[in-house]
Amino acid sequence: MHQISRPGFLRAIGAAMIAAAVAMPAAAQQPAAGGSSPTMDAIRARGTLICGVNTGLAGFAQPDSQGVWRGFDVDYCRAVAIALFNDPDKVRYVPTTAQNRFTALQSGEVDMLARNTTWTLSRDTSLGFDFPAITFYDGQGFMVKASLGVRSASELNGATICVQPGTTTEQNLTDWARANRIQFQPVVIERLEEVVNAYLAGRCDAYTTDVSGLAATRSVQPRPAEHVILPDVISKEPLGPAVRHGDQRFADLVRWIHFGLVTAEELGLTSQNIGQAAGDARPDVQRLIGRTGDLGRMLGVDNAFMVNIVTRLGNYGQMFERSLTPIGIQRGPNALWPAAGGLQYAPPFR
Amino acid sequence: MSDATADPRFRRKPPKRPIRLSWADERIRGIVWQILVVGIIGSIIWWLWSNTVHNLEVRRIATGFGFLNREAGLPIAESLISYEPTDTYFRALVVGVLNTLKVAVVGIVLATFLGTAIGIARLSKNFLVSKIAAFYVEVIRDLPLLLQLLFWYTIMQGLPGPRQAMQPIEGVFLSNRGFKVPALVWEPAHTAALVACIAGIVLTWLYARSARAKQMADGQPRKIWPAAIALILGLPVLTWQVMGAPWQVDWPALRGFNFRGGMSISPEYAALLIGLVTYTAGFIAEVVRAGILSVNLGQWEAAQALGLRHGQLLRLIVLPQALRVIIPPMTSNYLNLTKNSSLAVAIGYQDIVSIANTTLNQTGQAIEGIAIIMLVYLTISLSISLFMNWYNAKIALVER
Ligand SMILES: N[C@@H](CCC(=O)N[C@@H](CS)C(=O)NCC(=O)O)C(=O)O
Q1: The complex's ipTM?
Q2: Which of A162, B233, B251, B260 is deepest in the core (most CB within 10 A)?
Q3: Chain A contacts in chain B segment 341-380 (CB below 8 A)
Q4: Domain ranges of chain A
Q5: Residue B342 sits in the same domain as residue B291
């Protein structure tokens, strides 16, 4: 009779091996000691960057009708590939859910995440990540059907609220409910598509996530006007790429690509005019385009990396306009500081 | 099973031979090989372990089970015990285990009934009944379970909203928020009645046993049902009456966004339960059919020749023999149902996998999280196996 319990055992052993595998690939990539970057070395040896992106969020990361990944987050993957290979297509995209993105990065399945991920203290420390930059300042909001007649989140007492697990969203939701003495019934579904379906089908009165995520979801509905994003923003969601802790060189590269994109916008360098920037006498411009300063080399890439990136992808503002403006997201807090009163601000590129 | 060792052929021991320290001695060879295999497996495990620990350390990924006492902060939709997001991860995981058990236990019971009914229907002489049963079995077994679960969940979501809820019977509401039914306001008298009912079942069983013993002695069959009704129904009703017969019903009512009051079954639980039951029943039906077919036709005829009534024939002759064939594969089906319940994550039912996954995501401790999931399933599966093995040994034909 013992053979009957054996399949259970085999499964358990299989699961144990998966658990081991989660930690195993780490053996191949010891963190950097001083000069070299194991992640960059691995990417160069492989010839492609493996980038963890969203499973499909309009404006941020979504395959178009030809199957080409497009979006604001995707452009950061492209930018890293341009810096390393001068080729935006040397990227393999791995779609990750809110739930499995962190194991994908920890285990080495992806080199980096460019996937609307909030920088928090515990993710930075006990999950073993680094957050090189904040590419999008966001906050959590609620979306309801216009027909419900709800004007503000405080009217949601007693409501059923759809939320995705493995997010800061679900934790903020419980905090907010407690602080405001609001009772709610959660519906917690893992796949984005299924949560959104549940909300659309009326299983929930409201759907909550980052406001950018709400705008993205609303923009792809056949009649976006039927859904209202409530004015309340209940949290801070600084979104940006994440890399494994311990490889400072790679983190530096990703960080300065973002700052380079912001600096390009500050300097008025765009995909159209950066080709003629060699004639621009401003010292800041000369450093950004790599004619002086040797800054690319310090990051372990070509000195012209920012020219290559901006030529193909545009500066920060152009990336924003291409991907996010069409889905109705405004610059708001992501405008430049101090020129436009936003929070996007780059330390000196020198 | 213990009978096997009692077999006299196995009780005979080979004559003792002195062990020769030589490769030619098969016992020495055996020992050497075993030490080698254990050594290799041991070092692989040690290597994996130390590597993992080292890597976690350099990556600064937290380790250990300390997170279990931290505040979970996760919302859980349904729970058998009281749960607040301020409770610990440990309590959240317990809620997950209970949710898994809630769907597995109810699922196993319902799938057994439905599967048995369909298995018997497939053997029916009625052409239509047997063909419908055969069609059911084929279709259900050919479609992936995940697809079926999503199908049921979509159906649940297709029900009208709470404000337009269907009300098939007074006080019962069907909507995309789930099924709401009136609930009894629970009093100590109800607990007492429940205890009395269980006592009644035990007493009935004891009574039936002594009646059978007496029948063995004097050949007189005795009626059991009057005593059974008195003990199983009468006793609890009496207890409830004595304790003041409390009977207060909590009716569900629409208030604000949702229904309040009454008892509810969530669409997620309902979809998962229906999906698992209908799917597993397809397999159980085949097991039951095979079990019944395995009983030799001669046994039926002999029983009829002895003048046994149809019920007696099934209960005394066919079932005991069929069960020997049915129980082992039935155990696998029960294990499968339990493990398949982990597909719950897809439709938002928060079982142990769902809650452990979220815990793992928030704490980053994948290895600990997966170890917990494994431990839970291993414990549940081994319990089911042990119980079924015990039952199987009990009903095994005693060969004389
Ligand atoms: N910023 C939050 C939420 C990010 C998040 O995962 N949002 C959801 C809803 S917009 C999402 O992108 N889901 C996509 C998926 O899981 O496939 C976090 O980092 O926890």
Answers
A1: 0.84
A2: A162
A3: 345-348, 350, 354, 357-358, 360-367, 370-371, 373-374, 377-378
A4: 7-137, 140-229
A5: yes
Query: Which CATH number is associated with domain A7-137?
Result: 3.40.190.10
What DSSP element (H or E) covers A17? helix A6-23
What whole-number distance in Å separates Cα of residue B117 and Cα of residue A175?
49
Whether the per-residue pLDDT at A160 is higher than 50: the answer is yes
Q: Which domain holds residue B374?
A: 89-159+266-395
Superfamily name and number for A140-229 = Periplasmic binding protein-like II (3.40.190.10)
> B223 and B322: one domain?
no
Ligand 1: which residues within 6 Å by Cβ?
A 54-55, 57, 97-98, 116-118, 164, 167-169, 192, 209-210, 213, 237, 239
pLDDT per residue as tens digits for the range A295-305? 999 999 999 99
Shared-domain flag, residues B101 and B33: no
Binned at pLDDT 50, 70 and 90, residue A5 comes out as very low
Beta carbons within 8 Å of A283's beta carbon, 6+ residues apart? A292
CA B37 to chain centre: 37
Range B20-43 average pLDDT: 89
- Take residue A96 and report the two structure tokens written for it: 């990750």
Q: Which two tokens stand for residue A149?
A: 């007649």
Cα–Cα distances in angstroms (integers) from residue B380 to residues A9, A331, B108, B335, B342, in the given order: 12, 53, 13, 9, 13
User: Would residue B48 count as lying in a domain?
Assistant: yes
B247 contact partners, CB below 8 Å, separation of at least 6: B184
Same domain, B210 and B350: no
- Split into its structural domains, chain B has a count of 3
Instruction: Note the pLDDT of residue A2.
Output: 39
Number of A–B residue contacts, CB under 8 Å: 193
Whether B252 is covered by a domain: the verdict is: no
The b-or-e profile of A304-315 (16+ CB within 10 A means b, else e) is ebbbbbbbbbbb
Please report the pLDDT score of residue B261 as a whole number: 82
Look at residue B245 and tell me if it is in a domain.
no
Q: Is B242 within the bounds of a domain?
A: no
> Do A7-137 and A140-229 show the same overall fold?
yes
Q: Tell which atom from ligand 1 comes closest to the C-alpha of A168.
A: 20
Contacts of B85-91 with C-beta under 8 Å, sequence gap 24+, read B85/A174, B85/A178, B86/A178, B89/B359, B89/B363
Q: In whole angstroms, what is the distance from residue B187 CA to residue B167 CA?
A: 28
